């Protein structure tokens, strides 16, 4: 099931105070980046994030799923209506993610 542009816009709005958020469409879904680092994506109209140690601390009860065929396991973010919590999550995660430019 492809993700809607409306869900993408909702997530981007919630992350507006996090600097450097970008996205890229991929097979009907959206891959999300923060300052050039891939931190998650929108798959089937749901937000998923890479299971970094910070993500696991912030989302201890999050369901682990493989959101797309051929992908790896990710954490599903069930509450996307709290911009402050999402900002804290992403800002903590980005410190642990590899720099893809190297």
Structure description:
With 102 residues, this protein is α+β, with helices and mostly antiparallel strands. It has three helices and six strands, in the order αββββαββα. A six-stranded antiparallel sheet has the order 1-2-3-4-6-5. The longest helix has 12 residues, at 83-94. The N and C termini lie far apart (33 Å).
Structural class label: alpha+beta
Tell me the number of helical segments per DSSP (H or I, 4 or more residues long).
3
Main sheet specs: 6 strands, antiparallel
With strands numbered from the N-terminus, the spatial order across the biggest sheet is 1-2-3-4-6-5
The rounded distance between the terminal residues' Cα atoms is 33 Å
Describe the oligomeric state of these chains in a short phrase.
single chain
What keyword list fits this structure?
102 residues; alpha+beta; six-stranded antiparallel beta sheet; 3 helices; 6 strands; 27% helix
List the SSEs and their pairings.
Blueprint: H1 5-14, E1 21-26, E2 29-34, E3 37-43, E4 46-49, H2 53-58, E5 64-65, E6 74-77, H3 83-94
Antiparallel strand pairs: 1-2, 2-3, 3-4, 4-6, 5-6
In short:
The chain is an alpha+beta fold. It has helices at 5-14, 53-58, 83-94; strands spanning 21-26, 29-34, 37-43, 46-49, 64-65, 74-77.
């Amino acid at each position: 099931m492809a993700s809607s542009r409306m869900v993408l816009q909702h997530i981007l709005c919630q992350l507006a105070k996090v600097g450097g958020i970008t996205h890229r469409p991929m097979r009907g879904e959206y891959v999300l980046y923060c300052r050039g680092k891939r931190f998650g994506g929108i798959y089937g109209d749901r937000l998923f994030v890479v299971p970094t140690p910070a993500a696991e601390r912030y989302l201890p009860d999050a369901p682990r799923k493989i959101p797309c065929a051929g992908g790896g396991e990710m954490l599903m973010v069930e509450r996307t209506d709290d911009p402050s919590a999402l900002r804290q999550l992403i800002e903590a995660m980005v410190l642990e993610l590899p720099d893809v430019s190297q």
